[in-house]
Amino acid sequence: MRVAQNIYGKEGEVLLRVGSELSEGLIESLRKRGVFAIEVEEENKSYAVEEDEKVDIISRELRSEAEEIVMDTWNAALEGKSFSMSKIKQVVEEVMDELLTKDYAFLKLADIRALDEYTFAHSVNVCVLSLLLGIIKNYSENRLYELGVGALLHDLGKTIIPPEILNKPGPLNNEEMAIVRKHPAYGFSLLCQEPDIAFGLALIAYQHHERCNGGGYPRGLVQGEIHEFAQIVAIVDVYDALTSDRPYRKSLLPYEAVETLVAMSAQELNFSIVKIFLENVDIYPVGSIVELNDHSTGIIVSVDKSLPVRPLIRMLVCENNHYVSTGTDINLMENNTLFIKKVLGINTALADKLL
Ligand SMILES: [Fe+2]
Question: In the prediction, which pLDDT does 205 show?
């Protein structure tokens, strides 16, 4: 097996370069460094990924710092110690500063996934995406800050759930489910123990599993009763969970997760916030390599925001394990019999080369 993307350590250093052959020893040393899942090249599916690099929405150093602070907070909570709220506040401020100084035409949701998966990546993703939604909704800096801290710590109550239940690879039985469903209340009470905690911030932990139709937990609140911060975090939490690998299923591609969100926005999630989310989602980013329903392959070269599911595609053929352009473009806006069947990968470097 060969590595499909560069693998980075916590300090942003390259641990393994793309294309490196994996050995038992290398896998073991990656594990020791906290890297538990990586992408490997599929046989005969190499599409010159060596020149592609996913761009993260925040700097790699800041992501590592944020994940480390979430980890320290979790460890402190596990040991029943108080945690450093000042460090958490500082890192959220840094994330806000990075996001507020960037100009987004689109939320590059496809880029949000960390290059490698480790334990606290989800909390940081939820924080970043919630803040982006808050920025689009024109929140004041003070509200953004409360939203960011609450989002970063939304699952803190899981520290009180026994790890054998939390990490169980299969489905949970009713009794285990009832225990897991206590994590919002646990998180709320942990946060309320901290001095000077804003109530809305703590409500994120308490209400992020509530659903607009009253079908959520712990209290079965309905839309008007759920704090807007918690409604934002609920959407982002669902999206990020769907696009992450879980022990029992592979991650969904962004457009599949988007379809799930649309379905859920009918009853469970706040429709107007989901709409903002979708208006800013890059469903098929430029550089996506896609398979069409006639089994042909192409790369997305441009996307019309008004109809993002019908992009302009440059057709490709595979030669010596590398995709090359056939020189033909197909505009799905003008061709109603063709549609995208699946996304094979993303290669922005190849898209740049072809444009
Ligand atoms: Fe949760």
Answer: 97
CA 33 to centroid of ligand 1, rounded, Å: 26
- Containing structural domain, residue 335: 288-354
Cβ pair 69, 88 in contact under 8 A:
yes
The alpha carbon of 209 and the centre of ligand 1 are apart by a number of angstroms equal to 6
Alpha carbon of 339 to ligand 1 centroid (Å): 36
pTM: 0.69
- DSSP notation for 235-270: HHHHHHHHTS-BTTBPPPPHHHHHHHHHHHHTTTS-
* pLDDT at 12 (0 to 100): 59
- Ligand 1: centre distance to CA 66 (Å): 18
- Is 103 found in the same domain as 34? no
C-alpha triplet 108, 207, 98: angle, nearest 5°: 30
Closest alpha carbon to 75 in 171, 185, 156, 182: 156
State whether 194 and 324 are in the same domain.
no
Residues with CB under 5 A from ligand 1 (ion): 155
Q: How far is the CA of 53 from the centre of ligand 1 (A)?
A: 31
Predicted pLDDT of residue 36:
67
Let me know whether 109 and 158 are in one domain: yes
Identify the pLDDT of residue 103: 59
Query: 2 lies in a domain?
Result: no
Rounded to the nearest angstrom, the distance between the alpha carbon of 147 and the centre of ligand 1 is 15
How many structural domains does the chain have?
A: 3
* Highest averaged pLDDT of the listed ranges 45-54, 79-88, 186-195: 186-195
